[in-house]
Amino acid sequence: MKSIIYSLLACGLLIGGGSCRKGFEDLNRPYSDADESRINIPGLYNGLVESFTKYGDDALNVSLLYPITNQQAYQNTLAPYVNYAGGFWGNYYPALHNYRALIRLIDQQPDAASFSNVRHMATILLASRTLRMVDYYGDIPYSKAVSAADGPAFFRVPYDKQADIYKSVLADLKTATDGLTTAAGQTSIGASESFLKNDVDAWRKFGNALRLRYAVRLYNKENALSSQIITDIIGGNKPLPNNQNVAATDIWKDNFGLWPNNFSNAGTFAALDAKWNSYAELSISNMRMSSNVWQQMSSSNDSSGAGIFDPRCKVFYMTSNRDKWAPQPQDGSQPEGGRPYEGGMTVRRPIGTDIANKFSCVNLYMAADRVYQPILIITEADVHLLKAEIYQRGMGVAKDIVKAKAEYEAGLRSSVEFWYGYANNSPFWGTKPTAPTALQMTAFLTNPKVLYNGLNDADALRKIATQAWLATLFQPWEAWAIVRRTGLTPKDPNYAPSVVNKLPYPDDENINNHENWQAATGGASPGQQVLQKIYWMP
C-alpha cells in the first residue's frame, strides 16, 4: 500500500494531474503545518534510508544486468527487462521528494545549524541515489522535479542534462562530506540514523568513496574536474575505507550499503525476500555459475575444484547436486533443469536428490540470506581498485606503478576478507567457510591470471577491470558501469549479449510528460533508447 501511495504522490508532484493529486491534499500541505507525528526530521530521514531497501532491484538484475555483464549462466538471454526498467525510476522520485522535504523542515528550525550533520548525511544518501539514476537513464528530470507545490510550471518538468547533474551532485557531495563535524551541539536523531549509526568517520569515508568512484568514471570527459577531486581526496589524505575490521560490529564502517542488522525494523527488509525469490523462481532466474566467471577463478576444469585459486569462489558458489564444480556454458548449449533453490530452504538438498541439477549454483546461503547480507553500494575493495587504476594511469596524481600494485593487491585482499567476514558473521550461514591461509592468498595473488605487472599498462588495466568486475558480482549495477566504461572485462567468446547502454524511460513519461520526454528522446522507441550512450561512456 505504501508503494502505491508513494507512486501516486510522485505522480502528483511530478506532473500535477488533478486525479493523481486527489486525496493527498493533507500530504501536500506546507510541512510547517503538517502533523508532527507524520512529518518530522527523524521520520523523513528514516524514510529516505528505508527507500534503499529497493536498491537491489533483483528483477532488473536477473532480467538484464547479469546477462549483459557476462556474469551469470542460464539466464543468459534477455528476459523482458523493459517491464522492470521503470522500477528504479519510480523508487527514486519519492526519495527525492523526502529529501527536499527534509531539507525544508531543517531550514525551518530555529536551531537549524544543529541539524547540519543530518542535512549532510541525507545529502550523501541522495547523491548516491541520483548518481546511479543518471548512470541508468542519462538525462532525467532533476532540478525542477518534485516541486509541483511551486505552481503549474513545475507540473511537467524538463530533463536536466546528465553532465550538469553529475557536476551539481558531485559539488553537493563535497560540501556534505567536508561539512560533517564531530563538534558539540549537533542534534542526534538516534536510532533513526540506521544507515551508519551516526558514525561521522564512516560517513566521511562513504562520501569520499563515492566522489572517487565518479572522478574515475568521468575522467575521460571531465578531466579537470576529476583530477581536482582525486587530488583533493588522495593528495589531501581525506578519509577513505582502509584496513577494514570484518567483525560483525564494524564491517559496515568500511563497506557501505544497507545492512539488515543495523535496522531496528526488520520488516523494512522485504527486499531481501524479493532477492530470494529471484533465485528460487524458475521463470525468472535459475542462475548458475558461468563458464566466463569460472575461467577467472580456476586454472582448470577439474570438477573436484583442485584448480580453484580464487578463494571467493567457494563463498559465491557451491557444487552441483552431483557434488561437482561444473560451470554452465553461457551460450545456452547445455540447459539446466535442477531445482537447487526452493522457498524457505535453509540448507542445501542432500547430494543426489536433485539429479537434474548439473551445474554449480550460487551458494544457497548467499542466495537465501534474508537476515544479514547487505545491499551494497561501495566497498573498501572497490575503493582500492579505483586507486589502483588512478596510480596506474596517473589520474590526478603522478603515475606510480608500485602504488598501483599495492592498491590492486589490497583490493583483492579486501574483497576476500570481506566475503569471508560476511559469511562468518551471518547467523544464516549454517556452515561457516574457513578463511584462506596466508599461503593460499599468496598463491591467489601470484596466479598468472591475477599477477600484477605495472610495466604493461594494457595487462594491468585489464586485470584491474577484471577484478573490479568480480568484486562487484553481487553489485550488478556497478559491474555494468565497469563493463560500459572500460570495455576490458572478460567475455565468453561464444556469447555476445545484446547492446544495452542505458535503460529506456518508463512509458508513463511518454504519456504524462510527453513534450519533455520528446525533447530528451527525439521520440526514440525503447529499443532505440537503449543504444544511446551514457555521458561517460567511450
Protein architecture, described:
By secondary structure, the protein is mainly α. It has a domain at 2-193 and 501-529: Serine Threonine Protein Phosphatase 5, Tetratricopeptide repeat (Alpha Horseshoe). Helices cover 46% and strands 3% of the residues. The protein contains 21 helices and six strands. The chain has helices spanning 2-15, 18-21, 41-50, 58-68, 87-107, 116-137, 162-179, 200-217, 223-235, 270-280, 291-297, 313-316, 364-368, 380-393, 401-425, 438-446, 457-471, 476-486, 507-512, 514-521, 526-529; strands at residues 72-73, 256-258, 288-289, 317-318, 361-362, 375-378. The protein has a two-stranded antiparallel sheet with strand order 1-3. A two-stranded antiparallel sheet has the order 2-6. It starts with a helix and ends in a 9-residue tail after the last helix. 48% of the residues are buried. The model is unreliable at 1-38 (pLDDT under 50).
Summarize this structure as a short list of keywords or feature phrases.
two-stranded antiparallel ribbon, 538 residues, disordered N terminus, single chain, mainly alpha, Serine Threonine Protein Phosphatase 5, Tetratricopeptide repeat, globular
